[in-house]
Amino acid sequence: MRALRHRSIRALAAGALAVAAMTAGCGGSGNDTATSATPKTVDDAQVEQGIETDLSTSSAKVSGAKCPSDVPVEQGATFTCTVTFDNGATGKATVTQQGRGRYAYELKPGSVQVPGATADAAVEKSLAAQGLPDATADCPSNIIVKVGTTVTCNVTGAGGAASGTVTFTFSDAEGTVDPSSVKT
């Protein structure tokens, strides 16, 4: 009887240890889940550098980008960053997460805007190259860039040789005035 009691006590103790181990395992698992449930966020500094590198062209360099710092990592998901170009243009870039720290960048169509003063200078330079020095262009104060769409500005000066309007188109989505498109 005594041997039976020792076996029963050992069995109860082993059972209690097993239950304690399972309970501890569940508690540990719950804590791991809570920790791993916190999603990783995109490295906004890496994305901003990628935008500056990938969206810069020979005619318009990205001088700055600003992305949100709280974007969860999720392959295929997109988010938007603001972009500034060295020609004064500003716009939005769509960033697509491709996985493993890789991203695709694209300017949002219709989001890039060029200051009128930037367009004025480009048009005046083109007019000077066409033999109309000292012409003064007066473009709208803010121009939304649409490649292939004609923009009209007022023009005066050049010793009276230029007055009326001048038209041009953008050669790229970054807001570069196509010099060959400038017509009075």
Explain the overall architecture.
By secondary structure, this protein is α+β, with helices and mostly antiparallel strands. The chain has 3 domains: 1-38; 44-107; 113-181. The protein is 33% helix and 28% strand. The chain has 3 helices and 9 strands, in the order H-H-E-E-E-E-E-H-E-E-E-E. Strands 1-2-3-4 form a 4-stranded antiparallel sheet, with helices on one face. The chain is elongated. 25% of the residues are buried. The model is unreliable at 1-34 (pLDDT under 50).
List keywords for this structure.
184 residues, alpha+beta, four-stranded antiparallel β-sheet, three-stranded antiparallel β-sheet, 33% helix
Secondary structure layout:
Layout: H1 2-37, H2 44-54, E1 62-66, E2 78-85, E3 90-99, E4 102-107, E5 113-115, H3 116-129, E6 135-138, E7 142-144, E8 151-157, E9 164-168
Antiparallel strand pairs: 1-2, 2-3, 3-4, 5-7, 6-8, 8-9
Outline:
Helix content is 33%, strand content 28%. By secondary structure, the chain is of the alpha+beta class. It folds into three domains: 1-38; 44-107; 113-181.
Strand content: 25-35%
Provide the succession of SSEs.
Answer: HHEEEEEHEEEE
How many helical stretches? Answer: 3
Shape annotation = elongated
Structural class: alpha+beta
Number of domains: 3
Mean pLDDT: 83
Rg, alpha carbons:
32 Å
Straight-line N-to-C gap = 115 Å
Fraction in helix? 25-40%
**Total count of strands:** 9
Main sheet makeup: 4 strands, antiparallel
Q: Low-confidence parts, pLDDT < 50 over ≥5 residues?
A: 1-34
- The largest sheet has its strands arranged as 1-2-3-4
